[in-house]
């Protein structure tokens, strides 16, 4: 499965802040199947959606 990255968030957010989760929740509310994954190499959270096969 391939995915399209919508947004990147640094992993060092202040304690209690979840900007990637909040962004993904807003996308899900708009009907996009957004998910948050961790990119260990860049130490960032990525908000992704499944990639279209046409792209």
Task: Provide the succession of SSEs.
Answer: EHEE
| Number of helical elements | 1
What structural category do the secondary elements indicate?
Answer: alpha+beta
Strand order in the sheet with the most strands = 1-3-2
| Global shape | flat
Properties at a glance:
single chain; 55 residues; alpha+beta; 1 helix; 3 strands
Question: What does it look like?
Answer:
By secondary structure, the protein is an alpha+beta fold. The chain has a three-stranded antiparallel β-sheet, with helices on one face. 20% of the residues lie in helices and 36% in strands. It has one helix and three strands. 9% of the residues are buried. The two termini are 13 Å apart. The radius of gyration is 12 Å and the shape is flat.
Q: Which helices and strands occur, and which strands form pairs?
A:
Layout: E1 3-10, H1 19-29, E2 35-39, E3 44-50
Antiparallel strand pairs: 1-3, 2-3
Brief synopsis:
It is built from 1 helix and 3 strands. The chain has a 3-stranded antiparallel beta sheet with strand order 1-3-2, covered by helices on one side.
């Amino acid at each position: 499965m391939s995915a399209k990255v919508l947004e990147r968030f640094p992993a060092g957010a202040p304690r209690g802040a979840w900007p990637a989760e909040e962004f993904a929740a807003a996308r899900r509310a708009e009907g996009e199947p957004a998910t948050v994954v961790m990119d260990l190499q860049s130490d960032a959270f990525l908000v992704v959606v499944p990639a279209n096969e046409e792209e």
